[in-house]
Amino acid sequence: MDPRPVEPQELDAITRRERRRQLRAALGGLAEILIALVIGLGVGALVMRGAGYNWRLAYEGLLIGSFGDQWAIADTLASATPLILTGLVFGLSARAGYFNIGAQGQMVVGALAAVAVGAHLSAPPVVAVTLAFLASALAGAIWALPPAFLKATRGVHEVISTIMFNWIAHYTALYLVFNVLNDPRSAERTVRVLPGARLGALIPGADMTAAIFVAVGVAVFMYWLLWHSPWGYEMRIAGLNPSALRYAGANPLWSVNLTFILAGLAAGLAGATQIIGRPPTYALYGDLSNVRNLGFDGIAVALIGRNHPLGIILAAIFIGAMGAGARMMQIMAGVPLDMVRIVHGTVIIALAAPEAWTLLGKFLGRARARRAPAPPAPAKTVHR
Amino acid sequence: MRKGTILLAALLVAVLAFSVSALAQGSLAIVYDVGGRGDLSFNDMAALGGDRAVRELGVRLTEVESASTADFLPNLRALARSRQHDLIVGVGFLIQDAMAQVAEEFPNQKFALIDGFVDAPNVMSISFADHEGSALVGALAAITALEYGGDTVGIVLGIEIPILLRFEIGYRAGVRWAVDRYNQIYGTNKQVRVLHTYTGAFDDPARGKTATDAMLGQGATVVYAVAGATGLGVFESVESVARAQGKVVGPPFAIGVDSAQDWISPGFIPVSMVKRVDNGVFEAIKRALEGTFQGGAVTLRLAEGGVAASTIEMVELFFDEAIAAGAKTAEDKAAAMAGVRAARAAVPQLAWDLLDELDRLIRSGEYVVPEALDRDTAEYWRGVLSTY
User: Fold this and answer.
1) How many beta-carbon pairs below 8 A join chains A and B?
2) What is the mean pLDDT of residues B190-205?
């Protein structure tokens, strides 16, 4: 006998209930963000007041410096550009169940590749830019492979391996900057990329270049991949329940590699944006200070953006605005940079805390689940 | 109606008077290097010059630190765009590219660049005769090593930029001059070798410490720190190695740079190569306010007070600055100054005498310190100065 057909009213009711649930969840998320923002800014204001600075003027500076005029907005977006990409690295990996903090190293390698290709390959502008981007994406992906293989074949935890690869990249870069890619006339940095490989400022007087479109494009691609493609479905299932995926016959090696490679591509591109997409130097500094911390800032961006590609764009713009606003906090309110960083830190922690809490719970829960099915221990256990 | 007009006129006059007074007062903006404030060295010296301009010229001071090299350009632009500053000073060689660009975008804004060169009519490029000052401390280092039975001195540097090559070669020249003079006095045939390390960073004390540990391990008696905040690691290394041998006064010794850093490790820093960045900043804003500002390169030499070997009075001055900044308390001062005096006393008198002699010779032009601003020249002088 056929199952009872669903009455139209009943279907309506179900849809309505579902819609209401979604709306409630969205509003709840929004409220969470607002409350976190208020708490973060409030604590920041208290800290500034305690240290004797005018916090109202400082926040006014933050706003003016980040969104006050067309240049400020462009500077905000310029600062957001690499953060969108490094945020995607952590966000995508977290969706697939990995704690991938290798963005920093992969980005550094990407930056090196952009310098190597951009400075030595003379080609027409569009070709040169494309090749530099491709080279850095490839370099970032290659740098992500060893941790992925170690994870898939030997079970080495990605936190350990990616941290180690970050340092290997760091010191390799220092060596290359001073000994191979060095500019003999300016030893503090590498050679500059050729004019053909440089992206110019979109608005004269600000640093934003077309690199922002690359970053947003990659974010949109990741969104499509995660929610509208079979590969993304597999990745998300892996993140939610890895044993279910194995049970369904998927190859874990393939899943790990795909995630890490895609994340590595984004990280490599982030490095390129700082080399060919950021006036005026178009080179990598010897202390790596033009790519410093961008990979780690990406973790905060991903957490604030709830590991969702579109959320990550907004979060990166937010963090970029904090960076761009920092100068006016200093100029208008005389708040020193260290104090500005404390304020930024409190706001970022407040915003990232809910997601970090959820992620932590998930990882701990999984660890517990791994331990649980072990056979009951015999009365006498040998402790090692 | 009439009342309103009068009120408006009064308001206008008030606004005008206010803006005129603001203009007469003058305004100075300083953009610091990535190392930033609190390096007890290069950037803090620039800040000292700014503070002096506030005190003596009554200018308003705006300070901006840069979180990364990518911030130099937007920081300079934000200041230039406000049109509120008579002079914008960029501190440090790394800011050079950004300043060249901004100087072109804002041709009516006056700029000063410390330790770099921008070829523009609105940029005053201020540099210092680092090689002359480094030669002085090199002479002291060499004689100290010889008198304590050593034959090695070291120099730990930041990034291998042209200016640091100038420090290194100046130091080597001072060492060589002093050893030759020593052999001439005593009729001996001694040699001193100079170890050098470019750490690749101005803000990483850990790397400074590692490099210095290695040099002390190779028998260096004195290590010259030319690396901004990285140099703090040099002091830490020298002090911890000495203290491990139960000493409260060197050898080994460290030599400070840029500001009179002698008080940072009392007992172990007998002298610093003081680079009067403060005078450079002060001079630039003074000229901008007087209307005598001119673009182009200005080098402040030893004879003009641009560089100097630190004196006990300078050390006290900088210690007072540290107290004012809250980094130190007045109670610390007596103990620290006692340590500074002990370190100076532990350096052989001959070393001080030869330092003074070389100072006179450089001032009078009888001894010209070789200057290297590129790798090839530096390599040439390394060879010439170390072949006995």
Assistant:
1) 101
2) 91
